[in-house]
Amino acid sequence: MLFTHQFTFFDTQVGERILCRHPFNESKRAYVVPQCVEELLKCYWPGRSGKDREELPSIKLIRERCIKQLGQMRPDHMRRLNPTPYKVSVSAKLYDFIHFLWLNEAPVGELQ
C-alpha cells in the first residue's frame, strides 16, 4: 500500500501545550509546553510533492551544526560507560501515523 497523503508533523508553537506519547506504549503520555521549537526536516529532494527544494548546505556547515548539536546533549547521555537512555516522545499526530503504517504492513493471520 502506498501512502500518498501529505503529512506535516511540524505544527507546534513555543508555549503551546501538546500531548506527547511514547512511540509504542500507548499508556505512557504527558502534556508538555515547549520552550524551544526547531524544524528538523528540510526538503532537499522534493520528488513530485511540489514543495520548494532547499539548498544543501556545505559539508563544513553540516559538520559545524552536528558538533554544535552534540555539544548540547547532556553528558550523562553521552558517556561511554553506562549512558543514561535517551527518551523519545512523539506527538499524538505522529503516533497515529506510525501506528497506521505499522498496522497496514503487519501480516494478518488466518484462523481455520
TrEMBL record:
Entries under InterPro entries matching the protein: NAPRTase_C, Nic_PRibTrfase-Fam, Nicotinate_pribotase-like_C
Coiled coil regions, renumbered to chain: none
Pathway(s): Cofactor biosynthesis; NAD(+) biosynthesis; nicotinate D-ribonucleotide from nicotinate: step 1/1
UniProt entry tagged with the keyword Secreted: no
UniProt domain Nicotinate phosphoribosyltransferase C-terminal: residue ranges: 13-97
GO terms for cellular component: cytosol
Keyword DNA damage recorded: no
Superkingdom of source: Eukaryota
GO BP term, example: NAD+ biosynthetic process via the salvage pathway
Catalytic activity: 5-phospho-alpha-D-ribose 1-diphosphate + nicotinate + ATP + H2O = nicotinate beta-D-ribonucleotide + ADP + phosphate + diphosphate
UniProt entry keywords in alphabetical sequence: Glycosyltransferase, Ligase, Phosphoprotein, Pyridine nucleotide biosynthesis, Transferase
Gene3D superfamilies, per database record: nicotinate phosphoribosyltransferase (3.20.140.10)
EC top class, as a word: ligase
Protein known as: nicotinate phosphoribosyltransferase
GO MF: glycosyltransferase activity; nicotinate phosphoribosyltransferase activity
EC number: 6.3.4.21
